[in-house]
Amino acid sequence: AFPEDRIFVNVHNYGNTSAASVPIALTEAFEQGRVKKGDIVAMIAFGAGLTWAGAVMMM
To answer: Which of 10, 36, 48, 57 is deepest in the core (most CB within 10 A)?
Structure first.
């Protein structure tokens, strides 16, 4: 499990924005200084039905 302060959530602001969810959250996290160049970021998203995806990237 990840500590809550290490998880970025914005669904309460926009609802489920489908395919745009991860890019929107990543942009906001950069703008707020929560993600910086060189950080390792895990991104996880869900879609219709039982679809889901995840990726780990160095920014």
So the answer is: 10
